[in-house]
Specification:
Structural class: mainly alpha
Number of domains: 1
CATH topology: Arc Repressor Mutant, subunit A
Helix content: 55-70%
CATH superfamily: Winged helix-like DNA-binding domain superfamily/Winged helix DNA-binding domain
Oligomer: single chain
Strand order of the largest sheet: 1-3-2
Strand content: 5-15%
Number of strands: 3
Number of helices: 7
Order of helices and strands: HHEHHEEHHH
CATH class: Mainly Alpha
Low-confidence stretches: none
Length: about 150
Amino acid sequence: MGTRYKGPKEETRALNAFIKLVRAAQSVSGRVEAHLSGIGLTVSQFGALEALFHLGPLYQKDLASKILKSTGNITMVVDNLEKRGLVARVRDERDRRHYSVQITPKGSALIRSFFPGHVARIVKEMAALNRAEQDELGRLCKKVGLRGVNN
């Protein structure tokens, strides 16, 4: 269902596209991320662990940027992961005012065991589109997502 707004075609087209984008993203995310509660992680915590697992240690500011969270929010995310022994803050030897966040062996083991199933869920969801459609969706989402950055 689209917008009930009765404005100019340009506006209703944009609103309808936006509504479809948001609804699709929420629907797919809900199905893909539903299993995170089984390992006691929020979406942000999982994103942080996944980023650290694949990218290596990051400063909190860089981690926040990578998973699209504010620096204030990432502090809470890292605090909670640290309490569970999944990450550790390590003081930067070159600049002792800064700490990098590193995944622990316990955090690595959790992601290593969990990530293949997560990827399988994403592959299953994206199978609604063929390869060319997946590529086009990725291109279009990137274009829309970077719009504000380039202007």
